[in-house]
Amino acid sequence: xxxxGDENEVERLGKLNQLYLAIISRYKDYIQxxxxxxxxxxxxxxxxxxEAVVKKAAEIKGGFDGYxxxxxxxxxxxxxxxxxxxxxxxxxxxxxxxxxxxxxxTYAMGDMIDKNILxxxxxxxxxNPSAKVFVKMKDENFGAFVYCTFNDKIYKFDMxxxxxxxxxxxxxIASLGIDDDTTAYEFNNQAYLDIS
Length: 196
What we know:
The chain is an alpha+beta fold. It has a single domain, classed as C8orf32 fold (Roll), CATH 3.10.620.30. It is about 40% helix and about 20% strand. The protein contains six helices and eight strands. The strands form two sheets. A six-stranded antiparallel sheet has the order 6-5-4-3-7-8. The protein has a two-stranded parallel ribbon with strand order 1-2. A hairpin with a 3-residue loop joins strand 5 and strand 6. Helix 2 packs across helix 5 and helix 3 packs antiparallel against helix 5. The longest helix has 24 residues. It is globular, with a radius of gyration of 18 Å. The model has no long low-confidence stretch (mean pLDDT about 90).
């Protein structure tokens, strides 16, 4: 392996160790307990006004000549999606915990939920308060994505399956194959809603 490759791996492991330390320090008194949030608390995870989120949104807006929501939001949203999808490394850690969008940005790592919470926070920071994290669980299958309404269309941003446009929320929900054995819910910084 080339020396440059070794340095990149050392840097990656250093960031991962910093992430472990931050988590362990934060939860040292509760490390033996499973972290959990009530449904009422899920909206607190979406933080579009956090300084790190606002800074990243401003960086994305800076890529446009005089950013305006009406003209530029869709392209800014796809830029945010590309950043989260490729710029935030997958990290599945042995402790079950919630990262804040600030943590996810700081360490450029997170799991599927962390990435979706960051994405939702960024879309709201870009001016779209309709953005929501959608979670679907059935048996052992678990999935999450972010969607928002813009110009009378629904835009779904799925880290595993890409971005897709829908005519309505009804067509989005119909595409998900939700049945009586499915648990589904959505949330943003303002609300939590059970879907099934």
